[in-house]
Amino acid sequence: MSSRIDMSTVLAHQAEAVDSRYHPAAAIRRQLNKVFPTHWSFLLGEIALYSFVVLLLTGVYLTLFFDPSMTEVTYNGVYQPLRGVEMSKAYASALDISFEVRGGLFVRQVHHWAALLFAASIMVHLARIFFTGAFRRPREANWVIGSMLLILAMFEGFFGYSLPDDLLSGTGLRAAFSSITLGIPVIGTWLHWALFGGDFPGDVIIPRLYAIHILLFPGIMLALIGLHLALVWFQKHTQFPGPGRTEHNVVGVRVMPVFAVKSGGFFAAVAGLLGLMGGLLQINPIWNLGPYTPSQVSAGSQPDFYLMWTDGLVRLWPAWEFYFWHHTIPAAVAVAVLMGVIFAALIVYPFLERRFTGDRAHHNLLQRPRDAPVRTSIGAMAIAFYIVLTFSSFNDIIAYQFDVSLNATTWVGRIGMVVLPPIVYFVSYRWCVSLQRSDRAVLEHGIETGIIRRLPHGAYIEVHQPLGPVDEHGHPTPLQYQGAPIPKRLNKLGMGGRPGPGSFLFADPPAEAAALLRSAHAVEQLALTALRERQNGNGNAANGNHPGSPENGEV
């Protein structure tokens, strides 16, 4: 105990010495008092961050054993079906990692699953930002950073699963990288020779992709993630409308200790889930594919899900060739141009919306998707477009499994790509408008109770439960919509009761249940009380600090 006290005393003296020289205590305390909202949707970005950390850790381990050389060797490893087969050193080292390196297959599969989770979480995170309007001023830069991260993640993943030089990765390189490059007018041939060092496949493309995969793209992505986190930290966090929440405060929990503990636990959960997936769910069994040989390319070759839409776009695009200045422009080039247009539209969308709506105000409160029907309909239309292209990427498998014509599946995809998005736009828009009307009807008339009452003159009416005060005739006073969810059932007001805490078979004692209920809302009550006291005491809006914090600085 004495040594523990002595150590704490020494640390306290050292901290005091540092603070007396550099005075960091006030700044650090302000930052540790930073408040973050507690809505579950804000954890989507953390999933991307934690999966990226897992990617870095597993990638470093794989780098120690992978040889990116394309030199031909004869495989003499432990995997008997491929013994004596000619293959590149890259493929042979990937087999060695899978079968001979201790934990190699586990780490390789965790790395692949983490890459998929990273791309998926960025997509869902961007969708949340899009549909809630979190990209509006002053956060346009963060949207641009997130869009660039998604694009980089797509190409980083493509380069990553091209490294083993197996049959599937070689097919992807030939179809998506070599063919499109060769089809570019004027400079296509020269560019292809610069990338591949000659004809496909050459002997330099895997080492070059390896350098990009482990050095260039990770460095850029790490810098973008750091910039993104810095902007989130210093611009304050957005939050959904609710009691006590304004454009000038943040209601939630402090970084220390609550948010830090939650984030640490969530990182452990994400890493644990990826570990379970890497250990239990097989992915990319390269030993079943064999080394890349152009003569063995067959149907059933698809990329990972985040690039399936590009493969579907290639399959659905008509075989149109354009001729310009005695140069042939094949269909694949048009697809690449269309991909560039889609990426550009994704990046500049906040500026387009600001241009067409004229909204130049600062926004710290989020919107419900129903309150921005045009934006929500555009997003739904984009999702429909993405789904059609994704399903079209494996139309050959669909045709084979369901015994239908491949041409029929192609034409269904072409028609769906053109017809389905406008239909989804119209349905989404009308749905948003109807939800707005439903909210305003409840605010004006109250919640339907299901109780039918007969009036003295014989008419029947349904009794409504007002959400606010009533006039002298008992009619509800219409309330103004504030952007927060509107209760539409009596159970939302607590009239139906709620199940008590406890296990599946036994309820908690009444005293313990009451204590749990009080503690569950204690932080919210303290935050609202402190906010009300500060607003009433000095006339200034609260700055989002946690109750009990002496600082009155920005969060």
UniProtKB/TrEMBL annotation:
How does this chain sit within the bilayer? Multi-pass membrane protein
Which GO terms of the molecular function aspect are on file? metal ion binding; oxidoreductase activity; quinol-cytochrome-c reductase activity
InterPro entries per record: Cyt_b/b6_N, Cytb/b6-like_sf, Di-haem_cyt_TM
List UniProt keywords, sorted A-Z: Cell membrane, Electron transport, Heme, Iron, Membrane, Metal-binding, Respiratory chain, Translocase, Transmembrane, Transmembrane helix, Transport
Q: What is its main location?
A: membrane
Please list the residue ranges that the record marks as compositionally biased, kind Low complexity. 536-545
- What parts of the sequence cross the membrane? 40-66, 110-131, 143-163, 175-197, 209-234, 264-284, 331-352, 372-391, 411-432
Annotated spans, Disordered: 536-555
Task: Write down the required cofactor(s).
Answer: heme
User: PROSITE patterns of this UniProt entry?
Assistant: CYTB_NTER
Task: List where this protein forms a coiled coil.
Answer: none
According to its UniProt record, the EC number is: 7.1.1.8
Subcellular location(s) of the protein? Cell membrane
> By its UniProt entry, which SUPFAM superfamilies does this protein fall under?
Transmembrane di-heme cytochromes (SSF81342)
Q: Mind listing the GO biological process terms from this record?
A: respiratory electron transport chain
Q: Please give the catalytic activity noted in the UniProt record.
A: a quinol + 2 Fe(III)-[cytochrome c](out) = a quinone + 2 Fe(II)-[cytochrome c](out) + 2 H(+)(out)
Q: Which GO terms describe its cellular component?
A: plasma membrane
Residue ranges of every copy of the Cytochrome b/b6 N-terminal region profile domain listed in the record: 14-241
Q: What function is annotated for this protein?
A: Cytochrome b subunit of the cytochrome bc1 complex, an essential component of the respiratory electron transport chain required for ATP synthesis. The bc1 complex catalyzes the oxidation of ubiquinol and the reduction of cytochrome c in the respiratory chain. The bc1 complex operates through a Q-cycle mechanism that couples electron transfer to generation of the proton gradient that drives ATP synthesis. The cytochrome b subunit contains two ubiquinol reactive sites: the oxidation (QP) site and the reduction (QN) site.
Question: Assembly and interactions?
Answer: The cytochrome bc1 complex is composed of a cytochrome b (QcrB), the Rieske iron-sulfur protein (QcrA) and a diheme cytochrome c (QcrC) subunit.
Name of this chain's protein: Cytochrome bc1 complex cytochrome b subunit
Q: Record the organism.
A: Mycobacterium bohemicum
